Amino acid sequence: MIVAANFKTNLTRKKTLNYLGALESILKEKNISQEVLVFPATSSLDEHEGLVTVGAQNAYATFNGAFTGEIGQEQLDEFGIKTILIGHSERRHVLGETQEELVTKFNFYKELGFKIVYCVGEPLEIRESGNEIMMKYISAQYEGIDTEYENLTIAYEPVWAIGTGLTPTLDDIQTVHQALKAKSKAPLLYGGSVKVANVEEVLSIENVDGVLVGGASLIAQDFAKMCEIAQEIENKE
Ligand code: 13P
To answer: 66 CA to middle of ligand 1, Å?
Structure first.
């Protein structure tokens, strides 16, 4: 299973370093063999060795150049970063990234062999418009994306469940994941208000291959607990 933490605009460089140290020692102590990804803020990126793979929350589709405020492959390469999150709903809806821009970014980092965690998900008004409209909306987020890319992981994150404490029912997650698995065989994560208290039931759903955790990942011990629960589920299978 894949257990991923998205820090968003949280934690400083120093706090991230302490976090990764604490997380690594718990994972080692508990014999965790799950795939663990951590996406810190851009200013906290650094070289990291251990069980955890550190990835970038965002980067521009360029090696370097005149793109004020952005970082490119050269800045990621300095720290050996080969994993990137693309299409997160906050980048789509708050920062206004279009599908076209995301496709450009996807293709750029795909060419470089990056592991790409590509996010999809619907806002509340779309979900409330019924299943057909919702699936059409999510399908549009697959447009231009190579769903067979070998280093692809997809994360389904309903926008209305992010940071709200609201989660879809387990049946709803199962239904959407089943439909999305038909579009791509890539590992499929669920994200949106996942926490220690609900991670076991979420990870037990068919076609859920892992979780992408925001707010509840900010405390290393809590995130480590989620990795432990994932390990226990896999050991049972
Ligand atoms: P929360 O876990 O805070 O709801 O955020 C989910 C998310 O956006 C992870 O990318």
So the answer is: 31
